[in-house]
## 1
Amino acid sequence: MTTIPLRSLACGLGASLLLLSCATVSPESRLRTGLIDAGISPRMAGCMAERMVDRLSLMQLRRLQSLASLRKSHMGDMTVDRFLFKVRALEDPEIFAVTSKAAIVCAIDG
């Protein structure tokens, strides 16, 4: 019977955990993808996600994720004003404030 030294086992487990952490998708990446799925242009979605991700809780980000299904029901690109109208319907003033500020800053920077 072969025994594995504790140090080797610990290094192997540490490497496995490091690889798993790299495989997970960051909240910013998920938000960017969700915005694109909702119909926002990739450039605008990337800019907005970068500004929004640290200002919203995970629960709020999940609520925003529900808007990704909008594009499937509406053909064509979603305009930012129509998207903000849908965000306001979530009835969370903080989500609306953070999203609208990000949209304004990104539109000006664009």
## 2
Amino acid sequence: MNLDDELNNTILSFTDIQAELNLRDAQKTMREIVGHLDLTPQERAGLETEIEGLETMMDKLEQTRVQIAVFGMVGRGKSSILNALLGQNIFETGPIHGVTQATQAQSWQVSENSPETSDMGNDVVSYRISQVELIDTPGIDEVDGKTREEIARQVAQKADLLLFVIAGDITQVEYEALSQLREAGKPMLLVFNKVDQYPEADRMAIYQKIRDERVKELLSPDEIVMAAASPLIATAVRRADGSIQAQLTRSQPQVEQLKLKILEILDREGKSLVALNTMLYAGDINEQLIRRKMEIREQSANRVIWNGVMTKAVAIALNPMTVVDLMSGAVIDVTMILTLSKLYGISMTQQGAIDLLQKIALGMGGISASELVTNFGLSSLKGLLGVTAPMTGGATLIPYLSVAITQAGVAGVSSYAIGQVTKTYLANGASWGDEGPKAVVKRILASLDETSILNRIKAELQAKLDLTRNSSVSPQSKIKFTLETREQGTGNGEQ
């Protein structure tokens, strides 16, 4: 063995090792994706097909099963090509227009001792693909355009290698379908079938026109092969009267070039193809599942946040003591963070929630500071107005309510911002991403319409407190009445 052979063997060995590592990494990732879907029945509803597809692709990856899908117009010999590769008539063929009405699949056992593989040596199956599956599809002109595109998209999305069969110069419909399949980003072979029906000169002229003009922008010359899946040959048959008649009979399939090309692809990159395509498919489906999960959980999270906002606003509006205001507000915010963490399936302790609240508060800067100043100032004023109400005959009651609602509104806006930042943090897997907490907080705060939020808080607070109808009652009595009313109506809390 010379130096070049040793170098080539070393490169091949390294490539095999890398392919095996890629495959194992993909298998591990797929197990984690399927094993950690964490979907509620509501989140699963409507996505059963996608989840089933994800599990099917995991099975394909575990078995290292390569899927080869064939496309083409009716009558081009798609099914015959697959039967020729299989060496037996498995896929239905016939003169009826569009025999194949739905996708069909069949395992293909490649023999190491077949004539087509003799040049590749005894290690022809060195790619160690445990299974190869051939998939037949309906003719691209058998169904309407939208359905055709959907079938092609679904099959091409899962397949590892695509075969596109033509039987002569490519048509406009075929070119458009080929272009769409090319967008799938999968390895593809254009199979010029039924070459036995053309004289040698015509066959080569058509082949060169396809190669150099028709598909030059889509495929390289190495991706175009010629075949005769079910060739017809003329044989001389003597009639009873002694005359000679030409009779067409089926001959042995001529698909050696196609089979060799497929085996070369599998030998070179079979494992990597399975790993890459499975991960691409899993990534697309996983994004759909996560998007659905986040949409549903966001609705629930928004209800949790708004309940926290109103609870904090009412508590602060009703409590005239500054220290108690601050403590109760912090407790409500921590409780909201813990509730949101459970909703997003992320384990968090009370101390963890307090630490997160501190980080968010630091990132919020101005809002947190204004809330603190407002609470100190307005709580003192609110307390003074409440104490002097009996002495003024209730004259300070209206200013008291105005101060309470303003104070509660500021606290509510702060709590709303905290909830929104927490929701983003948890939806991102308890991570700030590459931006850091301050950047995330700043971005979210910039998107909040504080004026609208404040107006909504004031309106709901006014309805909850409902103090204007009994202006003759002291503030302390009114607060007691409001608390009793709220306790009786807890079953119909705000959403």
